[in-house]
Amino acid sequence: MSAARESHREQSGQSDGGSPGSRTFSRRWVLGAGATTVLTTGLSACGSGNGSGGDSGTITAFVYGDDAVKVQAASVARFNKSAAAKKAGGRVKLEKVPGSDYSPKLRTAMGSPSAPDVFFNWGGGSIKAYEEAGKLVDLTEIISGDPVLRDGFLPAVLAAGDLKGRHYGIPMRGMQPVILFYNKSVFAEHKLQPPTTWDQLLDINAKLKKAKITPFALGGSDIWPELMWLEYLVDRIGGPEVFKRIQDGDAEGWGDPAVLRAAEMVKELVDDGAFGSSFTSVSYVNGGAPAVFAKGKAAMHLMGSWEYSTQLGKFPDFAKSNLGWAAFPKVEDGTGDVRNVVGNPTNYWSVNARTRNKDLAVAFLKDCASQAYAKDLIDNGDVPTTSNAAELLSSAPNPEYARFQYDMVEQAPAFTLSWDQALGDALGTKMHTEIGKLFAGKSSPSQFVAACKGLK
Question: How many angstroms separate the Cα of 94 from the Cα of each of 106, 119, 275, 292, 329?
């Protein structure tokens, strides 16, 4: 199980069941965003040594110690026996850090002489403070000059973890795009097809409400499921450049017309009953929203790709027979490409600027582009972000679903990182508050925009 999904699983008291189908996966913004909190303190204490502790022939890699860590353990074992490791003059030692301890331990270690040479992270806002403190190797030129790293990953995912257009990470786990799921039995009964345009979506909503079925399940009490609606609407209306401006630190970007229009469309959905009348008291984490969806009380659910595994664990018959999936529809007069994706692209390896052996660290990163690495991810129930993964997807737990995800991300001109991840903990938490007020009708679209412009 990836760290991206692990944090909410832990909060909701769910346990690993071993196989991908028996586990309930959930969204992970808490740990990812929380990483930024611990990064903002202690960096000034970082020593000025020449690298991590120990001999220069061994480098250390910190990794989030969840169920999926076996993929990284196999990678380290494989690499240490390789000619590349011998040529670079060393080996990698993997240090598995329990999920609840990962962020504070990483922050403490990065402020000490024994900092890791390579470390797991969530990209975007989770590494911003490290980059600002000069603690990361800028991998941009290294990647552009190396065919394995340059061509080994889906471009949209490689770019999604960037900071100001520079690469500081290499993809090392599975993808998690946000997908429009639908109940195939409800759609068949009412002779509906998944919407490809916003007008079609509104027409479907009207037909479903007439049949006394809530169009969309929504775990509004958690706030982050509401964020997904704004992420896609802003992208479809104005393209990924709108949020990129905000992510790069320009708060005036919240004043872009695409943000206001997206907020207005959200208000129209809420006022029209698209989410029902009690969505603000429904939770995803405790299984409320998935149950509403699986039981046919709601016909659709906008959620991360882990929804499939969530349903497989809680309502296996529904997941196997009646769970459908589609891309988020286009907004007819919007400028955003309908192929664009939002969500959690993957997790990343980054390299400490103080590493004793940068050549060894870079050589190790290349294993993430290998066929063996991709196969291990697939066997763990993940969909790799490597460009060589397509031919391996037939062995996935659900090949059709895995292929849909892979094609969706491969064809995406842009993959926007979840806003809370991209902005980091401080801004992300304040943004969540404003999103909650918008959906609950406690602020108007214009008030939402004004409040977000004032976030600091």
Answer: 14, 10, 45, 42, 42
Cα 432 to Cα 291: distance, rounded to the nearest angstrom: 24
Return the closest-CA partner of residue 178 out of 235, 232, 126, 220. Answer: 232
Considering the domain architecture, whether residues 191 and 295 belong to the same structural domain is answered as yes
Distance CA 95, CA 14 (A): 25
Burial state string for 381-401 with b = 16 or more CB within 10 A and e = fewer than 16: bbbbbbbbbeebbeebbbeeb
SS3 of residue 49 by DSSP: coil
pLDDT for position 239:
98
Same domain, 294 and 442: yes
pTM for this entry: 0.84
Cα–Cα distances (Å) from 61 to 51, 65, 116, 348, 428, in that order, read 13, 12, 6, 12, 28
**Same domain (yes/no): 310, 439:** yes
Map residue 262 onto helix, strand or coil. Answer: helix
CA dihedral sign, ordered 271, 272, 273, 279? negative
* Domain at 379, CATH number: 3.40.190.10
- Report, as ranges of residue numbers, the positions in the chain whose pLDDT lies below 50: 1-54
Q: Is the dihedral of CA 212, 445, 345, 62 positive or negative?
A: negative
Alpha carbons 306 and 438: distance in angstroms, whole number: 26
Domain enclosing residue 136, as ranges: 3-174+346-417
Mark whether 352 and 328 lie in a shared domain: no
Say whether 277 sits in a helix, a strand or coil: coil
Distance CA(448)–CA(348), nearest Å, equals: 32
In the DSSP assignment, the letter for residue 258 is H
| Position 135, amino acid | K
188 and 42 part of one domain: no
What is the helix, strand, coil percentage profile of the chain, to 5? 50, 15, 35
Same domain, 403 and 293: no
3-state secondary structure of 59: strand
Q: Please give the C-alpha separations between residue 302 and each of 189, 306, 343, 394, 455, in angstroms, as whole numbers.
A: 21, 11, 11, 26, 26
What pLDDT score was predicted for residue 386?
A: 97
Q: Is 299 helix (H, G, I), strand (E, B) or coil?
A: strand
Q: What is the 3-state secondary structure (H, E, C) of 163-232?
A: ECCECCCEECCCCEEEEEEEEHHHHHHCCCCCCCEHHHHHHHHHHHHHCCCEEEECCHHHCHHHHHHHHH
Within 72-175, strands assigned E span 91-97, 118-121, 170-171
Q: Do 170 and 51 have their domain in common?
A: yes
CA distance 398 to 119: 31
Number of domains making up the chain: 2
Residues 221 and 288 in one domain: yes
